[in-house]
Specification:
InterPro entries: CbtB_put. With 72 residues, the protein is mainly alpha-helical. The protein contains three helices and no strands.
């Protein structure tokens, strides 16, 4: 006895169009987060430091070197 099971025909995926006005607030939010992250990794504890001491510098030290920022 032979049983052949056929799979249903697959339909191609149709992309959904997302209006720019829905993406823009999230893009701005993501851009601000990226700018803040680059500031803390690359510039904190420098000439424009926001926090006293070396806590932020030491916490981000390896990430700083990984991204190519010189720090000493």
């Amino acid at each position: 006895m032979s049983h052949v099971v056929s799979a249903p025909a697959l339909q191609p995926a149709i992309p959904t169009v997302i209006p720019v006005r829905e993406i823009l607030p999230w893009a701005i939010f993501g851009g601000l987060l990226a700018i803040i992250a680059v500031y803390f990794v690359g510039a904190e504890q420098g000439a424009l430091s926001m926090f006293d001491g070396m806590y932020v510098h030491e916490f981000l030290h390896d990430g700083r070197h990984l991204l190519g920022f010189p720090c000493h």
